[in-house]
Amino acid sequence: MEQSDFISIYPNIRFGKPCVNGTRISVYDVQGWVAAGMSVEEIIYDFPQLTEEDIKACLKLI
C-alpha cells in the first residue's frame, strides 16, 4: 500500500497539514500522542475512526 492510501493534504483542511484520510486528525497529532507514550490501542480507543495501519503510516513520516 502507498502512503497516499492513508495520508492526504488539502489546503482547506488543518491549514494544509498532512492528515489521515477521511479525518481531520493530523499526522503530527498522531506522532505527538505516540511520543507522549500513548499505545496504538489507546489511540484507537480515543479515536475509533483511526486504524492501526493509519497510525503506522503516520509514524513512517518521521
From TrEMBL:
Coiled-coil intervals: none
InterPro entries reported for this sequence: DUF433, Homeodomain-like_sf, WH-like_DNA-bd_sf
Entries under Pfam families matching the protein: DUF433 (PF04255)
PANTHER family xrefs: SSL2733 PROTEIN (PTHR34849:SF5), SSL5025 PROTEIN (PTHR34849)
Name of the protein in question: DUF433 domain-containing protein
Lineage, highest ranks first: Bacteria, Pseudomonadati, Bacteroidota, Sphingobacteriia, Sphingobacteriales
